[in-house]
Amino acid sequence: MHRMTLGVSRDDSVCGRRLLLLACAALPLAAGCGAAQRPRAGRVAVTVATAMQREMPFALRSTGTVEALQTAAVGSQVGGTITHVSFREGDEVSEGQVLFELDKRPFRAALERARAALAKSREEAAFARADAERAKALLPENLVSPAEWDQKRSAAETAIANVVADSAAVDAARLDLEYASIRAPISGRTGQLMAHEGNLVKAATTEPLVTINRHSPVRVRFTVPVSDVPLVQRYRGAGARVIVTTPLPDTTSHEGPLAFVDNAVDPSSGTLLLKGEFPNKDGALVPGQFVDVRLVLYVEANATVVPAPAVSTGQAGTFVYVLNADSTVTPRPVKVSRTVDEVAVLADGLHPGETVVTDGQFRLSPGARVLVRAPVGGTQ
Fold it and tell me: Which residues are CB-neighbours of 91 under 8 A, at least 6 positions away?
């Protein structure tokens, strides 16, 4: 019986050793390739801004309505037919300017009648006074009786009273003639014309012929909630200013003093009424117009401010990412006293001149390295 033997030839052994050496040599290369393929931690692109120190106004915001400082509803004090209108709708008129002319013929006739009645009463008064003087002279000689003297004296006094009454009637008729020319009681801009030539107007009605608004100066009425009333009371005498902005597209701002603070809070709305006054030389503010209002109560002299987007809110409160000299960032807690437009006013936590991240902070973590893409204010 032949014994079967399993074995490896010499050539096969040499080949195996060569493969093993190649495999061992390839291990460091494979390890190096793997290390090269792992991505390194990159920088996060951010924008930054510098914390600044500047004056910051403290303001309350509201919505207001422009109102004329003076408004006059022009009516007629006498009745008559309009014969002439001496202005056009929307014209600027001056105080005392004639606006309407009524038919003056009836008023002239009434004045002439009153003057004639006055002349007659003066003649009668003169005769009665002379008759009473004669009776008075004859009374001591008993040529007239006391009763006759009393009668003549009474007639003279009545005649004098008639002169006074007729004189007043002349003045009234003269006034009616003057009122036939209806004049502007104030200077301002006329509104819609409610009566035209040929219309019959009545005396002392509540329906105006035209309304005049004085556009320079004007006032803007607005309200603040009752919670802000203590602030208004505290700073109202410290030069509080009112700034109004007209709506888009022609946005312009106007500034004026706080001219009026109501003496009581409206219980139905829980608000306090205030008014600012503005020169309005250009007529940009029109009565009835809605405007945005900022009531500036005081100005904080050295406030530390940063762009509002730089402030983030976390579980521990508000914070900002501060840029370090080595291009890393560090989160720092800050205390925000208020936000004005796009600016956050900080009460604590940051010093002027420090650089904070304004965009890209949501991709950051403490100690992260950053790449400043668009520095603001020359800070990087």
Answer: 189, 190
Q: Alpha-carbon distance 380 to 361, whole Å? A: 15
Residues facing 357 on adjacent strands? 48
Residue with structure tokens 């940063």? 306
pTM of the model: 0.66
**Structural domain spans, the chain:** 46-53+302-372, 60-68+217-301, 76-100+183-207, 104-179
Between 2.40.50.100, 2.30.38.10, 2.160.10.10, 1.50.10.10, what CATH number should domain 76-100+183-207 receive? 2.40.50.100
DSSP 227-275: GGHHHHHHHTTTT-EEEEEPPSSS--EEEEEEEEE-SS-BTTTTEEEEE
- pLDDT on residue 252: 82
For 188-238, write each residue's pLDDT tens digit.
Answer: 999 999 999 999 999 988 899 999 999 899 999 999 999 999 999 999 888
